[in-house]
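User: I'm writing a tutorial on reading structure tokens. Could you give me a worked example: one chain, its sequence, then its tokens, then a sentence or two explaining what the tokens reveal?
Assistant: Sure. Here is the example chain.
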Amino acid sequence: MELISQHTKKIMEECKIRASAAGLVFADETLEYIVTNRDMLELSPKVMIPTLYDYWVHDVEVLREIGKYKLYPHNPYETVINSRPAISFYNDNNPDWLNIMIFYHVLGHIDFFQNNLLFQRTWNDDFVGQALADKRLIESLRSQHGRWVDYAIEFSRSIDNLVGYFETLPKKGFPEDMEPSEKVSFYFYIFLQEIKKVSELELFNEIDKYNKLVTQNPSQADEAFFAEVRIKYPEFIPVFEKNREKPKQECVDIMEYIRDNSPFLRKEENVWMRSVMNIVRNTALYFGPQMRTKIINEGWASFWHDELFRSDDRIKGNEVAYARLNAGVTSLSRIGLNPYAIGLRLIQHVEEQANKGKICTNFQLLKGIEERENFDQKTGKGREAIFNLRSDFSDFTLVNTFVTQDFTDEHDLFVVGQRINQQRGTKEYYIKSRKAEDYKEMLINTMIHPVKISVDERKTNDKNLYLVHEFENRQIYKPYIPDTLIGIEYLWGAPVQLETIEIVRTQTKPGEKAVFELRKILYTSKDGKVLKVNI
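And here are its predicted structure tokens:
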């Protein structure tokens, strides 16, 4: 691995000037390295962070990737790291014209990293430098505690998908008085939902009532609202006052709760494990936004490499090679998902819709096919609209908002199903649905959606950790539960219980349609053994 030559650096600095002129915003300082295919294989398990801490799983993944490479040789073109300064890697086989196209793609990523709100807690961080400090700390701990460091890493990584990513995002640009008072928060979040367990309708009615009072008279809203609450719920004030006496729990996720409250980790000989958990947790938080913006991030970078490179005179003589490469990267997959292709087309779709003024209620209310096709207010706001996407949207909000029937029809998108051909004894694919809602659901199901698990502090003490899974019509992946609970038991130093809901198939007669029911389950990990019972 080595820095790019001055010749290539000059080319890339010219790309920065053109990208900035087109509206992309990014820091001037960047680092670019030339790497071999073997460098790529060795860095990939570390998410291309050369300074990330060493862990035995990385070595296993390197061996696996080397084995795959021997069977299917390929040339990875580039990768980019969201750090300060941004660092990107380029294959040593790339010709100049390809590096120009790739650098435009990289600048799209850097612009996204440094302007999308989901990345705001990373905007000022040199993660590569922090990772190096973490690596040195882990090596120091490994020299003192040996293989126990790897156990601490492994058990921490088993729950690093449960970190409170959204809870840690700062409230950028929010007015200081936007947060409700402590009493209002307690009434709506705790008293109504957890203590009284009111219906959603009643909860929404109460919120609506409070909002109307705030609109009419903001300064007197709380007093007027709680005058009615005291009549309806006389016990509210005593419950609220009693709650204020309790020490406030600052933890936002399971990892943080275990790190700060585990009786096992409070022991002097085990305090070092907190440092390991903190490193694993901070690393997971840093990569949280990347996992939630794969489609829009790759779509944004693909949009700009195509937009900027096609207008760059340095493409001359390489048009055919570029067209072939670009088509391979951004072609739609009929089976599976190509995030480059879907993200690119969604951004192009939004730009076109905004240019015609179709992102409005009047257009949505139109029913006629010809009316919708001919609707064009020539607003010219397409570029503004996609920059708003770049700043404010994630994969979920992009797909959930803009995958419409117009979009799926325009690109002939459909959901593919599988079935067994009994006569031939083969698997075959068929078009299962062309509805936008079904295609949208398929895309959303491919996105990361960590389960939500919280600590029930009423049932938790030094001798037992009680976890509750919030069922969201998806059950936890059951094969992972035993090993994960055993790891948590080790970190807590006492038995661990997990309350969850599973989808269970009930007994039916042969030939009858399968029937499923929801069943509440309690898993208990004690002395390294996991027991499962119905509750």
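What the tokens reveal: The first strand starts at residue 2 and ends at 3. The chain has a mean pLDDT of 89.
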